[in-house]
Design goal:
heterodimer, A: 348 residues, alpha+beta, Rossmann fold, OB fold (Dihydrolipoamide Acetyltransferase, E2P), 2 domains, six-stranded mixed β-sheet, five-stranded mixed β-barrel, 8 helices, 20 strands, 24% helix, B: 286 residues, mainly alpha, MetI-like fold, 12 helices, 76% helix
Chain lengths: 348, 286
């Protein structure tokens, strides 16, 4: 278990930068996710940490040891791949024991550890099976066991749940998170699934085009995004262009396309600056009476637990709002919009 | 869907017919005639004489000349397969993993031995390997030569390796290409050096390719005729050259047929042994 420090990491190919100017500190035992769309450089970053890619610039350290130039086999990491990458010619026990064998551990000592970790991932009794005889979820757990049994300094996971079906994926999220907390291992997790990152992580790094746009807790990322890209990528959001016209009780007063709003903003935001006010759909309630903002429901999507509404305002602005399934409203109905301004946030 | 079932076997038979006819006419029938031929007695006026006899087989197993010939043939084939394997493996590994733009060209180079007719290729080797040839000129310059290649097994094996190399490279290349590069990466992250990854991951997983390559080259080399004939110049005898002598020179068709069947049987036995050995080796490697 160690701290991970990444400074000014860059990986450049002939004509483009996969990762540039990337800084990150992961505390001992922390679970950090790299989240972003495909091609944002999250996997490249992980592979640089693993030693499977050589960075073009920057430095990577585990605790105080600079590992930037070390090959993967000398970094003491455990890695889980999207395709699991289990050795097809070896049994479950041989797969899990491979890392211990590479470390020159004796047969009996290795077997004790292998048995313990196989029990930990709830695969007891499957020691002698080959990977092809296992289900996707079981293979996933063998891959986890193989990465954990060597007690690595760092656990690296590259989209490990992408190949599982939805129900199993939900289960495995909690399973991996619980396991990580029990073992207390420093973990770097790559995913393009925001819900996954939210559920599992202590902190999330949101990446676009090779750069980290924001590093923060799931709450920070969701309620206080630093850029429009982050706001767009994480959940749904309404963005209203506007200008800061003053301050009031610690909030910023913003004149927007749908009227005046009081919202929070990142520190240092100046009066007179322009930006967008972000309001999440669930912060907008549809009410019968007008409070000054009226609109007509132009679209209604039933999702089960919630209903998604598109409300068109008289000036043509379309607003997304969310209501709970019980209190359904009809399409074409005239409604009032009640915005919870404590959840409104000003983006640059 | 069960309504269709009763008609299915009949229709399946119909679909299998072309292949079945092909196999019967071109494989089973010729073998059958050879088997029948091999138990006939020789004749000076006809292809074979009246009646049936096991005399031909008796002669092969009792005369040390023919058993020695059989061992020589299998030995040459074995050495050819082994040398091919040694040369082919690194080539196949490179071809399977290279991202070079020259990949297509390299591929063509691998197949190039098959693009020339066997006789022309042999005369090429005769020119190269002759005592006054290019190879021996080079060896002389290094103070190592001249080495007599022609009319010796070593020259025959050089020419056999040359032409059968693609049959070893291609299956191994396919097998290596089928190995997920993530497996190598996974092994590295678990603490394996590149050499260990090669030994513990690449080699075992490429064994199916090695197996088919060795079988192909061994079978082809054991039954090669033109190369031992031309490069060996009559002084290197294999089962194939002797069989042709029996047929064309001695006009002993029944005896030639028996020799051919003994060679086939020996090759099949060798292959069974080989599969058995490699199966054990594969299990151990795993």
């Amino acid at each position: 278990m160690s701290r991970l420090t990444i400074r000014e990491l860059g990986k450049f190919y002939a004509d483009n930068a996969a990762v540039a100017g990337f800084d990150l500190d992961v505390a001992q035992g922390e679970f950090v996710s790299l989240l972003g769309p495909s091609g944002c450089g999250k996997t490249t970053t992980l592979r640089c940490v693993a030693g499977l890619e050589v960075p073009s610039s920057g430095r990577i350290s585990f605790d105080t040891q600079d590992v930037t130039q070390l090959p993967p086999e000398r970094r003491n990491i455990g890695m889980v791949f999207q395709s699991y990458a289990l050795f097809p010619h070896m049994t479950v026990a041989e797969n899990v024991g491979f890392g211990l064998e590479m470390r020159g551990l004796g047969r009996t000592a290795a077997r004790t550890k292998v048995d313990a970790v196989i029990d930990m991932v709830q695969l007891g009794g499957l020691h002698g099976r080959h990977p092809r005889q296992l289900s996707g979820g079981q293979q996933q757990r063998v891959a986890l066991a193989r990465a954990l049994v060597i007690e690595p300094a760092l656990l690296l996971l590259d989209e490990p749940l992408a190949n599982l079906d939805a129900k199993l994926r939900d289960e495995m999220r909690f399973f991996i998170r619980a396991l990580q907390q029990r073992v207390g291992i420093t973990t770097l997790y790559v995913t393009h699934d925001q819900a996954e990152a939210m559920i599992m992580s202590d902190r999330i790094v949101v990446m676009f085009a090779g750069r980290a746009h924001q590093i923060g807790s799931p709450q920070d990322i969701y309620f206080r995004p630093m850029t429009r890209e982050v706001a767009d990528f994480i959940g749904q959001s309404n963005l209203f262009a506007g200008r800061v016209i003053g301050r009031e009780e610690g909030r910023f007063v913003v004149e927007t396309t749908i009227g005046r709003m009081r919202c929070e903003a990142r520190p240092g935001t100046a009066v007179g600056s322009r930006g967008h006010v972000m309001v999440r759909p669930e912060a907008i309630r549809l009410v019968p009476q007008a409070d000054g903002r009226m609109g007509r429901i132009t679209q209604r999507n039933f999702l089960g637990n919630v209903i998604d509404y598109r409300v068109t305002l008289p000036n043509g602005t379309v607003v997304s709002a969310q209501g709970i399934g019980g209190e359904a409203r009809e399409a074409d109905e005239e409604v009032g919009l009640l915005i919870d301004e404590s959840k409104a946030w000003l983006l640059p | 869907m069960n309504k269709e079932a009763p008609g299915m076997p009949m229709r399946q038979w119909l679909f299998a017919m072309p292949a079945l006819v092909l196999v019967t006419v071109f494989i089973a029938a010729p073998y059958l005639t050879i088997v029948l031929m091999s138990v006939r007695s020789p004749s000076n006026v006809q292809i074979y004489g009246p009646g049936f006899t096991l005399q031909n087989y008796l002669r092969i197993v009792t005369d040390p000349l023919y058993l020695g010939l059989l061992t020589d043939t299998l030995l040459y084939a074995l050495v050819t397969a082994a040398v091919c394997l040694l040369l082919a493996y690194p080539t196949a590994l490179h071809l399977a993993r290279t991202k070079s733009r020259l990949r297509g060209l390299l591929f063509a180079a691998v197949l190039s031995p098959l693009l020339t007719g066997v006789v022309i290729r042999c005369f090429g080797w005769i020119v190269l390997l002759a005592t006054q040839g290019l190879v021996n000129d080079g060896l002389r310059a290094l103070g190592l030569g001249p080495v007599p290649f022609l009319y010796r097994p070593v020259g025959v094996i050089v020419a056999l390796v040359h032409v059968f190399l693609p049959f070893m490279i291609l299956p191994i290349m396919n097998a290596v290409e089928a190995i997920d590069p993530r497996l190598e990466e996974a092994a590295r992250t678990l603490g394996a050096s590149p050499a260990t990854v090669f030994r513990r991951v690449i080699v075992p997983l490429s064994m199916p390719g090695v197996q088919s390559g060795v079988i192909l080259v061994f079978v082809l080399a054991a039954s090669a005729y033109v190369i031992p004939m031309l490069i060996g110049g009559g002084r290197v005898q294999t089962m194939a050259t002797v069989i042709v002598q029996q047929l064309l020179g001695g006009f002993l068709w029944p005896f030639g047929a028996a020799l051919a069947l003994v060679l086939s049987a020996a090759v099949v036995l060798a292959l069974v042994g080989f599969t058995f050995l490699t199966r054990r080796a594969m299990r151990r490697l795993a």
